[in-house]
Each structure stands twice: as structure tokens, then as C-alpha cells.
Amino acid sequence: MATKVVDLRSDTVTKPSEAMRAAMAAADVDDDVLGADPTACRFEAEMARIMGKEAALFVPSGTMANLISVLAHCDARGSEVILGDDSHIHVYEHGGISTLGGVHPRTVPNNPDGTMDVDRIVAAIRSTDGALYYPTTRLICLENTHGNSGGKCLTVEYTDKVGEVAKAHGLKLHIDGARIFNASVALGVPVDRLVRAADSVSVCLSKGIGAPVGSVIVGSKAFIQKAKILRKTLGGGMRQVGVLCAAAEVGVRDTLGKLADDHRKAKVLADGLKKIKHFTVDLTSVETNMVFFDMADPRITPAKLCQALKQRSVLAMPTSSKSVRFVVHYQISDGDIQYTLKCIEEAVEEMLACDAKSERCSTNGTS
């Protein structure tokens, strides 16, 4: 049994580094709701600069970041947002844009690479001729990287094209950029260029960046002013939030440079899984820090595999009745990857042996 837990459930499971803890302890703080927390102000200004936008706002979570962004753009009830049918906002955020904002989602199918066909986006935009019957389209949302597509990256060319569509129709473009830095590193495109076409971007700080809490929203000064009011409305205004921003500052400083290594380790993991005949994995789909693989043997289920791995101190998440997801982060070492592959092989052998034993017992009992 390993003394260390190898946690591959998500990149949200990282623990604050010693440098983060020290920065949190030493943070210069004040009341951020009053706009007076110096660490928060400094961090927000730096994130705005990095992302190439006028202003930024720290919020407690990515879900709140996306909700605030959608509500700020769709500030009239009966507005409609075009977004992917397999996007995080649509699938995993409790329908907040509808239940809290009165915003209607108009879904377009996500392609395997996380994109939506541009012609389908255009077709989904409501005509003003139907204003008596239909919601009013005000916003398009993209997700980069696209989680349910395996962490695929949306290219700058694609994002620019969707931005042109939005602008031509008088719409806004929001990017759920929870892992936008992973996309930037994988594509070799500066993050500010990657999101240039967007009117707003949400960036998660507690995923690849490794901070314990929080996200930021970036956009124009006018947009962030609206976002600040909505943050307060939703209960997201916190006081000495510089304690959290200090950890995020360290994450941006220390962890962004490690994302490429996370991607390399994910590819090593995927390559190892490919060699196990009981699984199928598309190596070309592993662009960033996520690895999805399917069970090719009906005797092995995601739930059983994850339970067997847990007994060996490797944590993972089933994503469907036939697939499992691993997410690599900066606290996963090369040794952890090799240990995980060894544990998977052992778990498979154990499950197949148990299945064969059960089959023998069943055969003997009926003879």
C-alpha cells in the first residue's frame, strides 16, 4: 500500500504549496467589498494585464464567474445565450443562468473537439422578426479547454471566427476559460491573443494554477462594474479576500510554467493505458492534462476499476458507464504516473481473476 495518495480525480484537488501558505499568512489585507484590499486590487490588475483586458474581478468559484458573466451580458429577462450542449455552463452549473437570471439556453451540438459549427451558431441566432415569439439572442459562450471533450483546445482562429459572428450580429462573446492557460500553453499562443475576441473570460485559479480557492472574471471596466454588483447580489462579496488572492498570485507566478509538464505526463499516462489491451484510448485526443479512456472488456467497469485503484491509493473518477477520466496536475510526479499504470495493471488482473473464479464456481454449482 502506498503511503502517498495519487489523486487524479481532478486538477482541483491540489493542496496549497508552502509558498502559497506563506503568502496567505503574510498578505496585506483590507475590506474588498469596499474596494480597499490591496492584495486583491494588485492581483486583479495583474490578471487583467495578463489577459489583455481592462479590468478583473476575483470571485469565489468558476460557477459564479460564469453566472455573473452571463447575467451581466444578458441583463434583460428573456435573453438567450447560445452555448454548447455539452458545455460546463449548460451541464454542470445547476441551470443557474435560467433559475437565477431568467436567461434561456439555446444549445448547439458540441463537436468531438469542443467546437460548435459556426454555421449552426449563426442559424441559432434569433431573427428580430420573431421578437414577438422568441427570446432575444444576446450572448455566445465558448469553453476553452473543453472539459467534456477531453480537455481539447479551441484555436485562436476558431475563437476569432466566432467573435466575428458575435460582432456582426451585435452579440457578446464569453469564454469559460477555466483552463484557458492550459489551452494557451498547448497551442503555443499567448493567452491574451487567445481571448482577444472575447468580451469576457472566466479563469479558474484552483485548477491548473493550483490555488486553493477562486476564479477571476476579466473584461471591460464597464463590464466588471456590472459584475461587481452581481457578485454582491449573489453573496460573493468577501472581505479580506487578499488572503486568497495571495495564494493565487503565487500560483500564477510558480505554476503556469509547469503546465506543459502536466501535458507531457498526461501523454505518458495515455500511452501507458494504450498498451493495456482491455482499454481503448485515443492518443491524439490528449492535448492538455486530461486523459479519458474506455473499457474494452465488459468484465471491467469504471466503478470497479476506480474502487480497485482506490484500494491502492490511486483516486480517479468514472465519467460514464464505460469510461474513466484522469486529470494530471503539478503535484503529480513522473513516479506517480508509473505507479498508477502499475496499479491499473494489477487491478485489471485482479478483476479478471475474480471474474474467472466466479465463473468456475457458477459452472461447478450447475454441473
Automatic annotation (TrEMBL):
Keywords attached to this entry: Lyase, Pyridoxal phosphate
Biological process according to GO: glycine biosynthetic process; L-threonine catabolic process
Top class in the EC scheme: lyase
Function per UniProt: Threonine aldolase involved in threonine degradation to glycine. May play a role in the removal of L-allo-threonine.
Gene3D superfamilies per record: Aspartate Aminotransferase, domain 1, Type I PLP-dependent aspartate aminotransferase-like (Major domain)
Origin species: Triticum aestivum
Cofactors required: pyridoxal 5'-phosphate
Modified residues (N6-(pyridoxal phosphate)lysine): K207
Biochemical pathway: Amino-acid degradation; L-threonine degradation via aldolase pathway; acetaldehyde and glycine from L-threonine: step 1/1
Ranges where the Aromatic amino acid beta-eliminating lyase/threonine aldolase domain occurs: 7-295
Pfam families per record: Beta_elim_lyase
Family: Belongs to the threonine aldolase family.
Protein name, UniProt field: low-specificity L-threonine aldolase
GO MF: L-allo-threonine aldolase activity
EC numbers on record: 4.1.2.48
Catalyzed reactions per annotation: L-threonine = acetaldehyde + glycine; L-allo-threonine = acetaldehyde + glycine
Domain of life: Eukaryota
Signal peptide: none
A single cellular component GO annotation: cytosol
